[in-house]
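Lab notebook, bench 4. Still working through the backlog of constructs that have no structural model yet. Next entry is a single chain of 355 residues. Request: give me the structure tokens for it.
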Amino acid sequence: MKKQLKLFREDIGAWWRGWSLYIHKRLRRIGVRFESNKAVLVDILMARRGSYQRPFLHFSLGLLFVVGAMSAPILAKSGENDTGDFTPSSAISTSLDLSEYGIQTQKSERPRDQLLKYTVLDGDTLSTIAEKFDVSVDTIKWANSMRRDTLTVGQEIDIPPVTGVVHKVKEGETVYSIAKKYTTDAQKIANFPFNDFTDLDTFALAAGQSLIVPDGVMPDAPPRVIASKPPIITGGTGQFIWPTNGVISQYPVWYHMALDIANPSAPGIAAADDGTVVSVQYLKYGYGQHAIIGHVNGFSTLYGHMSEIYVNVGDKVGRGQVIGRMGSTGRSTGMHLHFEIRLNGALQNPLGYLK
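Model written out:
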């Protein structure tokens, strides 16, 4: 009887290990297919990134939770099968000194998409709060209609997600009129991923909605002294050359890790370095008509919103070779180039490579 029970347990164990291996292989295949096709999903999400950002995040977190709950027993069983002698957790906790390894708990920060309510603490000042949330002092004052710099403990204030102005849209207003009112560029409003539009083609707004105006300045604020930008030329001493001529209409920020270079004369776009064209897309949303060039050491560059593209996938291009012409296709409010530098698929700050 004992022998039969032992054989039965072994059969059950073998059956469970077989299913675990099968599920693991299936999940791995699904993961590989997802990685190979995720570019299509990214393009779809970019078309409505302002509207779908929060629902997508909620769905993703829910999906991760369900997958984690379902895979936990499998991982636990796998760990039991692979482990010989078992050491009690109490023995580990008493023998392991985390301070010896310099391990610290780090708090992950999620990009803020809207106003945050903050309660003033003892010792807080406008400058310390502004530094804490990475916005300007004026941004906090404008959001709370403050005339003075004094704060009281327990006072609740609104903190915008970025430096600029939070504007409530009125009937008949457009991104262009709002940008002009607050002395900023309309493209910056379009680039902020959590701003929503009733029509992505025209960037139409709904009366009453809240709109984040990055780098906006209140009309009654004293004029800012802005250092003149050096001229941009096709050349340089960095790893990559400047891809076109114009002025920088938006610098890299956490939600837009790229350079926007504007020029109403629609000049040509040059390859920032030698490489191979790996993607050419003609989209009506997101990057619009754009090309991606692969370079050595895992680098790639993206050239967005072009009006014309002169290269095809697989073409070899040289450093400084004209690959297209500046335009305003896709999620664009005016003539400019959206330029990205990526390293192994991760966005980099272009200013670190263009000198």
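Notes after review: Residues 84 and 119 are 53 Å apart (CA to CA). The radius of gyration is 27 Å. Flag for follow-up if needed.
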